[in-house]
Write a structure and sequence with these properties.
By secondary structure, the protein is α+β, with helices and mostly antiparallel strands. It contains 3 helices and 4 strands, in the order αβββαβα. Helix content is about 25%, strand content about 30%.
Length: about 80
Amino acid sequence: PFEKRHGLKFLFTHAELRGIMMGQNFADKPTVTRIEDIMGTKNRVTGTQLGRIAMEALNLNPVPVAWEETLDGLK
């Protein structure tokens, strides 16, 4: 239901109530089955330190997005 409704695929959660989602741009890419598959990619995170720190701990490249820019960032 989540994927059909929002066009996002839930991968896993790195902190309570937070997760990593893959958008439609990844539809034609190989299936992501482990965190290593997305290492080196830029990932939008909330403007909080928790999101940035969690992504850095996973060896990903966090790109902070302010709350007021979140909706536009998802487009």
